[in-house]
Amino acid sequence: MTNTEKIFSFIDTYAQSSNALYLEAVIDACNEWLTGSSTPDLSTPATHEEIRRGIQLAILKGMKESAQPNHQMTPDSIGMLLGHIASKLVSENGETSLLDPTVGTGNLLYTVMNMMNGNVTAYAVEIDEVLVRLSAVVAEILEQRVTFLVQDALRPLFIDPVDMVISDLPVGYYPDDENGLNYELMPPEGHAYAHHLFIEQSLNHTKDGGYALFVIPSNLFESEQASQLHGFLKNKAIIRAVIQLPSTLFKSEVHEKSILILQKPSEEIIAIPEVLLAKVPDMKNKHAMARFLQDIDEWAEKES
């Protein structure tokens, strides 16, 4: 068995013997691991990625059992691509600060942090207390420095501006119209799109010159509120890239997603750079993916 399989087996065995709900038992198993009361039987030390993937498998099993459709994990293939891009856009020197305003279980955030392999800290926002406890204990095992805020991320966030925002945007309407009035992207009539408000909130908490990397619905700029979003982004952000993800990753066309990369304007950015429009090849084609990542690296080196 691989280390990932042994870690999953350790957590799953503990959860199966527990009277608690599976996700609660995952938290308990991780706490046992942290205290040394009970640990996975590993013949070699596990890497951060082996740990993340092992715990991820247990969380996925727990989510299937609890049937929480709004708490879906970002697929590893997307997380690793986002992590690769993020690692190329930040300075190799000094500390990098991140924000994930929709952290959930933390899987996307930790994928990115593991790939950055540097002096990185993060803020993570989540309203679900169980998911916060779950992502917090995983952060501790991974030795990642994360500060958690248990709240609606579209309410005021008392955090310092960050170098980069990472988010797999939740898609749908934001039900709190009263709070929505605090945002420019609140439409004159009807509910605001939550994913639009998350983009605005993220930019509010990004340093000048910093980046925001979002997993977005591919039809983001074709929706009924798209014209309002276009106007907002024209005034408040620089669109650096729109990267279409392979359709094979999604169940149907309506579920297809892309990666949107924004940069917060700053005095140092004089000329507006061209927007990178790209399409990710079939991720199973290693040669095509290698060429694509090389193109991304060259773009990041030239534009960052």
UniProtKB/TrEMBL annotation:
Lineage: superkingdom: Bacteria
SUPFAM superfamilies according to UniProt: S-adenosyl-L-methionine-dependent methyltransferases (SSF53335)
Alphabetical GO biological process terms: methylation
Stated name of the protein: Type I restriction-modification system methyltransferase subunit
Annotated GO MF terms: DNA binding; N-methyltransferase activity
Signal peptide: none
InterPro entries: DNA_methylase_A-5 (IPR003356), DNA_Protect_Modify (IPR052933), S-AdoMet-dep_Ade-MeTrfase_prd (IPR016843), SAM-dependent_MTases_sf (IPR029063)
Limits of the DNA methylase adenine-specific domain: 74-286
CDD domains from the UniProt entry: AdoMet_MTases
Keywords carried by this UniProt record: Methyltransferase, Transferase
